[in-house]
Write a structure and sequence with these properties.
The complex is a heterodimer of chains A (84) and B (377). With 84 residues, chain A is mainly alpha-helical. Chain A is built from 3 helices and no strands. Helices cover 47% and strands 15% of the residues of chain B. In chain B, the strands form 3 sheets. Chain B has a 4-stranded mixed β-sheet, with helices on one face. Classes of the chains: A mainly alpha (84), B alpha+beta (377).
């Protein structure tokens, strides 16, 4: 995952304590505090930061489930980005 | 005390169209007058509803309307200016463009139909659904307590396109009021009849896909942005409403004989009144302080703070004014009616409990912002 993405994501994880391990693709966003309002703000921040629009068909709960699933959708919109 | 005395207030200019209406004018009449005089565009940067709100222009319009008409009429205008038209501006198809142009010219009103049969405090439980089939849309559901519903030529309907509560499961749809299957009945309320308040039923309403407003799945994000502006508008309006109520109460107290003087001479009365002056100035300062953050960055915490403050301040001020009016306050059209209507400030557009929850979620950042840099151990 891109360091810009993990840095962007970190402030939204209000339940992530200081001892929380580093973000991994399996990090569960909801468990770490990304509720509906947080997710809306996260969506706007992603689109503003990367200058992209997430495809309408990717706007779903699966995309916003984990850090990895969200990053894969973002990366697919970035030219030259490896999504694996 | 302010550092500098406030500048002399210039007499209001350009509201002749409003002055031509009776004080009892309904929201739709006020809206038509504002649009016909070209005033509605003052609420937006560059005069465009899609360009974002101009806080000063919005506050001026709300204050001008509040000063002349009843609370329900101002509600009708406020909801359209702050939320309905900016949501409508997200539409890219001709139907949305035409509806927006017509509304801005005052030729029509637009209803924002978000609240469902389910409680407004549980928005993601809403049941109204939009299905895409056969190259078109089918809408089914019921919207309750919608301002401007009885007068609108178009309803902006928040519907789910997918089951479940996830925030991406909702989409806005532009529904012409005369679409087959769309029916409106007035809400049973004397308090908000002048706002065109009603309930909207959608019985398998068929529309083309060009009636989708904004991106599919972007319904709640779009709503979150523009409900923030509505909360700013509510705070601006709250200041105007409190000022109006306090000015009328002040005149009443100064004219009402009591003993060798008037009610205004009684220290307990003066103190209660002064406490209201303090409260409304607090709200005014908070509104000025957060206006740009809400209008330009759609700051949800700032907007929730304004909404919570407006609800509490309006409640306190109108309760106090109503008490100070005594029995006179119970006359038809008196302060007690206004007080009942103004309970809306802690309910509509996000109940007090909901917005306080939003503020609580941001407790750390709010506390950080209050700390003076370099002063903490």
């Amino acid at each position: 995952m891109d360091p810009r993405f993990t840095a962007l994501l970190r402030p939204f994880l209000k339940h992530a304590g200081p001892g929380e391990p580093a973000l991994t693709p399996d990090t569960d966003l909801r468990k770490l505090g990304v509720d509906s309002m947080q997710a809306i703000e996260l969506l706007f921040t992603i689109e503003d930061t990367f200058g992209i629009s997430l495809p309408d068909e990717e706007l779903n709960d699966t995309t916003f489930a984990t850090a990895g699933s969200l990053w894969r959708v973002i990366a697919a919109q970035l030219p030259g980005e490896v999504t694996a | 005390m302010p550092d500098t005395p406030p500048a002399a207030t210039a007499p209001p200019a350009g509201y002749a169209a409003l002055d031509a209406l009776p004080p009892t004018a309904a929201g739709a009449e006020v809206w038509a007058a504002l649009g016909g005089a070209g005033l509605l565009r003052r609420a937006y940067r560059d005069g465009s509803a899609g360009a974002g709100t101009d806080p000063a222009g919005l506050a001026d319009l709300l204050a001008a309307v509040d000063a002349r008409f009843g609370l329900a009429a101002t509600l009708s205008v406020s909801v359209q200016l702050a939320t309905a038209l900016p949501v409508l501006a997200a539409g890219r198809h001709p139907a949305a463009r035409q509806a927006l142009d017509s509304a801005l010219a005052g030729r029509s009103t637009v209803a924002l139909a978000a609240t469902d049969e389910t409680p407004g405090t549980d928005l993601t439980a809403l049941r109204t659904e939009v299905r895409t089939d056969g190259g078109g849309l089918t809408l089914t559901g019921t919207k309750k307590w919608i301002a401007n519903a009885t007068t609108a030529t178009h309803h902006l309907v928040l519907a789910r396109h997918r089951p479940g509560r996830h925030f991406t499961h909702f989409t806005w749809v532009l529904v012409p009021a005369d679409a087959p299957g769309a029916t409106v009945r007035p809400a049973d309320t004397a308090l908000y009849a002048a706002a065109g308040t009603g309930h909207l039923t959608l019985d398998a309403v068929r529309l083309g896909t060009d009636h989708l407003l904004g991106r599919t799945g972007f319904g709640l994000p779009l709503f979150a942005r523009h409900i923030a502006t509505e909360r700013l508008a509510g705070a601006q309006w709250g200041v105007a409403l409190c000022r109006r109520a306090l000015a009328a109460t002040h005149r009443h107290l100064a004219d009402r004989p009591h003993g060798d003087g008037t009610l205004w001479d009684l220290p307990p009365v003066r103190q209660r009144f002064a406490a209201c002056l303090v409260r409304v100035q607090e709200l005014n300062a908070l509104t000025d302080g957060f206006a740009q953050a809400v209008a330009h960055r759609y700051d949800a915490t700032a907007a929730a703070t304004l909404k919570a403050a407006a609800g509490a301040t309006v409640h306190h001020v109108l309760d106090t004014c109503a008490q100070l009016w005594g029995a006179e306050g119970f006359r038809t059209g008196g302060i007690q009616e206004l007080r009942a209507q103004a309970a809306l400030f802690a309910i509509g557009g996000g109940a007090e409990e909901v917005v306080l929850g939003t503020v609580a979620d941001a407790a750390d950042s709010v506390l950080d912002a209050l700390a003076r840099p370099g002063t903490l151990p």
